[in-house]
From TrEMBL:
The lineage of its organism: Bacteria, Pseudomonadati, Pseudomonadota, Alphaproteobacteria, Hyphomicrobiales. Keywords: Exonuclease, Hydrolase, Ligase, Nuclease. This is Ligase-associated DNA damage response exonuclease. Its EC number is 3.1.-.-. PANTHER family: BLL1145 PROTEIN (PTHR11203:SF49), CLEAVAGE AND POLYADENYLATION SPECIFICITY FACTOR FAMILY MEMBER (PTHR11203). It is an enzyme of class 3 (hydrolase). Coiled coil: none annotated. GO terms for molecular function: exonuclease activity; ligase activity; RNA endonuclease activity. SUPFAM superfamilies: Metallo-hydrolase/oxidoreductase.
Length: 341
């Protein structure tokens, strides 16, 4: 049996005929299995959606409770038969609720990983390697240049800058789902106990993380009339707002961005980022390679990102690999740093 006996590519994305479902489809379908809540993977309008409880909750927050006609909660590690296949959700370590989806047919197992990371994150369950015959992986940072330090090291740079410039506001650009909450929690774990201020677009998801048991400490929504009084504070905002007039109202703001793309200094300069923090919710090159080895696959499909480099590396390891060149994925894109994870 081969991967193509279980999965096929369609204009809507990855489809499993034996189960009659799509994984992270890019357009409305009859039945969608969703790996996590980022908008390039979790879209509204499907008739049926199966995902972990946190992912369904996050879709509620983002799209409203009518985002689907029918929903099914996937319990991590619990096998469920859909048509002729058995599916199981496993932690992906990307954001709260993120999961890989294992699909088995006649003893052949394919794992669709969605997005994932291998580094420690106090706001979500860690990645769980799943032995498989075929592995479907992302390659957002699938080049050897992408090697990420730990998030704590990068967060200390922010705290050092705040100590050095105690009268200036530090505006931290971070994606509203996953990255923002991770950065807040890392700062808390480093001992930062002052209030952290939020752009209005960050509030609902941070509130949800709190209800889900992730302690983020004291958070305050930015009052537009009070921006001039927030000198010396840390303010989280979408990356796109760093160059907006909204940002200019703070006292001598220092622009900060947390993204894997900050590994490329030219990218930071292009975006006008004064303090780049290399923090990603995706696997870097060493983690991608280590994961492919660890799951023991003989076939590798690469869905998006720097697919060609990872395909070449896999071939050198004796793994049959192919790039899928799927369009519509990749929140850390040039067009949408707001989606930087």
């Amino acid at each position: 049996m081969r991967t193509q006996d279980i999965l096929t590519l369609t204009p809507a994305g990855i489809y499993c005929p034996a189960g009659d479902f799509f994984v992270d489809p890019m357009r409305p379908v009859g039945r969608a299995l969703v790996t996590h809540g980022h908008s390039d993977h979790a879209r509204a309008g499907h008739d049926k959606v199966m995902a972990t409880a946190p992912t369904l909750d996050i879709m509620d927050v983002r799209y409203g409770q009518d985002f689907t006609r029918e929903r099914q909660v996937a319990v991590l590690g619990q096998a469920v038969r859909i048509g002729d296949v058995v599916i199981t959700f496993h932690p992906a370590g990307h954001v709260l609720g993120s999961a890989q989806i294992a699909i088995e047919l006649d003893g052949f197992r394919v794992v669709v990983s969605g997005d994932y990371k291998r580094s420690q994150d106090p706001t979500c369950l860690p990645f769980e390697p799943v032995q498989c015959d075929s592995f479907v992986t992302e390659a957002t940072f699938g080049l050897p240049v992408f090697r990420f330090p730990d998030a704590e090291t990068e967060a200390r740079k922010l705290l050092a800058s705040q100590a050095l410039f105690p009268d200036r506001t530090h505006l931290l650009g971070a994606y509203a789902l996953g990255k923002a909450q991770r950065m807040i929690r890392v700062l808390r774990d480093l001992g930062y106990d002052r209030p952290i201020y939020l752009h209005g677009s960050m509030v609902r998801l941070c509130d949800y993380y709190g209800r889900a048991g992730i302690d983020l400490g004291e958070l305050r929504r930015v009052d537009p009339a009070q921006r001039g009084r927030l000198g010396g504070e840390i303010v989280l905002c979408p990356p796109s707002t760093l160059k907006d007039t909204w940002a200019r109202k703070f006292p001598e703001p220092i622009t900060v961005a947390a993204s894997g793309w900050m590994r490329v200094r030219a990218r930071a300069r292009q975006k006008g980022v004064e303090l780049p923090l290399i923090v990603s919710d995706h696997a870097d090159w060493p983690a991608l390679c280590a994961t492919v080895r660890e799951v023991g696959c003989s076939e590798l499909w690469v869905t998006h990102g720097e697919a060609d480099a990872l395909v070449h590396w896999a071939g050198m390891q004796g793994i049959e690999a192919r790039p899928l060149h799927l369009m519509g994925y990749g929140e850390e894109s040039d067009e949408a740093l707001d989606e930087a994870a």
